[in-house]
């Protein structure tokens, strides 16, 4: 039986033989129906995106696919737990996979924002394009390491019938750190969007360029909001403690974690970078421009027209910039 809300997790006694637990570690019986629904949802989305990755040959989107694979594997563990409630391996599978998966979604939106910045020009961003991927991915790795350390301390405390409060607090610190950096990223992304909307040269040729930029921007926005809400839920969950209300009521987990991650990954079934998009620092091509276009980005060409910079462009490109 679970302790009261907010009580310390290891007030239970943990007796296990191999991979078998002698108590209900969830505080409820996981829903088999929910397990099947989310397992099917993540499987179908991931398979669809694998197919799209091969058709488009945008290989770096494998990062998104890996996130989907981890969510699918996590829900295999969750469904397994619904059938075998006391199986420790099922619990560990879902815990590890469902904690790691959103980091791959985060890395995807970091890379996509960098891609947009390379397309429209550095002047629309406070940071260089590559900085988003490096800074925020490193922050995610650090936060995951902190969460993993906290989880390890908690697990060791459970095995020895000791308090897991220290481990839980360390895990909470890792989640708060991850949420903080995602909020910083969101602020920077909003800044890019506002600069673009204020720029007349951007608006004057938006009809020629937004065919791919705007959908990707919306995809980044939706995914980022989903990740932030999930981070807030996870923060509240651990703040309450292992026996807290959020942790011991499955509907909150299904709605504020898994359903949000379905939306986060699923939005990229509708928006996808084109073949030839790169996450390198090459500024010689516009990542979001129509495929026949080559040379400098449209933002730089518009800047050249206003006297801000001088960039040579092919005649066909000049026509595109003045449409």
Can you put this structure into words, describing what you see?
Helix 7 (206-240) runs antiparallel to helix 8. By secondary structure, the chain is mainly α. Helices cover 67% and strands 1% of the residues. The protein contains ten helices and two strands, in the order E-E-H-H-H-H-H-H-H-H-H-H. The protein has a two-stranded antiparallel sheet with strand order 1-2. 38% of the residues are buried. A hairpin with a 2-residue loop joins strand 1 and strand 2 (20-21). It is globular and about 65 Å long. The protein has a single domain (9-276), classed as Rhopdopsin 7-helix transmembrane proteins. Pfam families: RTA1. It is found in: Membrane. Keywords: Membrane, Transmembrane, Transmembrane helix. One of its GO terms (cellular component) is plasma membrane. Residues 279-323 are annotated as: Disordered.
- Please identify the structural class as seen in this structure: mainly alpha
Q: Given the structure, what is the number of helices?
A: 10
Order of helices and strands: EEHHHHHHHHHH
Largest beta-sheet characterization: 2 strands, antiparallel
Q: What is the CATH class name?
A: Mainly Alpha
Low-confidence stretches: 1-16, 205-210, 278-323
The CATH topology name reads: Rhopdopsin 7-helix transmembrane proteins
| Second-tier CATH architecture | Up-down Bundle
The figure for the number of domains is 1
Number of strands: 2
